[in-house]
Amino acid sequence: MKRSSVLAILTPLLLGCENVEQTPYFPDFPAGSVTVYDAHPAVSHSGDWVAFKRLTPSSESEAVGVYLIRPDGSDEHLLLPNTETPSWSPTDSSLLVVSVDEGHIWSFDLASSAAWKVATGSRQYLAPTWNANGDSILFATRIGFEDERGLWLLNPNTGSYSHLLVAFSSYARFSSGPHRIVYLDDGRRIAAIEADTGITVQIITASELQQSSLRWPSADSTGSRLLFYSLPEGDGNYQVWLHELDSGQTSVLIDGAAYPAWSPDGHQVFYTKWDRLNVDGIGNGRIWKLDLNSGIRRQVTGLLEGNR
Question: Among the four residues 22, 56, 170, 266, which has the most C-beta atoms within 10 Å?
Answer without folding.
Answer: 170
